[in-house]
Amino acid sequence: MPHIKLADKTARATERRRLRNSVTKSRMKTAIVKTGKLIVAGNMELAGKETVKAISDIDKAVSKGVIHRNKGARLKSQLTRELNQAMSKGKGG
């Protein structure tokens, strides 16, 4: 338990931020997993739409400072690459 008022206030603010960040991060992770499942299932039309939603969620997390911009760029790149590879396999094979 903090002995100083400011330390107590900082602890409360940190907890509020942590909760807010966890909501954003959870939403982002859920969208990414959902996209991956659709890609594996071979449902490319829905996977494309879900990828757009996931990229939007990633961008929101980056803009709010929940994740670093380089991590956001990496996640978007990985998602897009997975989708493109799955789509090219579907056309070619």
What labels would you give this structure?
single chain; 93 residues; mainly alpha; Methane Monooxygenase Hydroxylase, Chain G, domain 1; 3 helices; 87% helix; 0% strand
- What ranges have pLDDT less than 50 throughout 5 or more consecutive residues? none
Return the average pLDDT rounded to an integer: 93
Helix content: over 70%
CATH architecture, by name, is Up-down Bundle
Number of domains: 1
Number of helices: 3
Largest sheet: none
The 3D shape can be described as elongated
Radius of gyration: 18 Å
* Percent of sequence in beta strands: under 5%
Care to describe what's here?
- There is one protein chain.
- The chain is mainly α and 93 residues long.
- It has a single domain, classed as Ribosomal protein S20 (Methane Monooxygenase Hydroxylase, Chain G, domain 1, Up-down Bundle).
- The chain has 3 helices and no strands.
- The chain has helices at residues 5-41, 44-63, 69-92.
- The radius of gyration is 18 Å and the shape is elongated.
Secondary structure blueprint with pairings:
Blueprint: H1 5-41, H2 44-63, H3 69-92
Helix pairs in contact: 1-2, 1-3, 2-3
Q: How would you briefly describe this protein structure?
A:
This protein has helices at 5-41, 44-63, 69-92. It has 93 residues and is mainly α. The protein has a single domain (5-92), classed as Ribosomal protein S20 (Methane Monooxygenase Hydroxylase, Chain G, domain 1, Up-down Bundle), CATH 1.20.58.
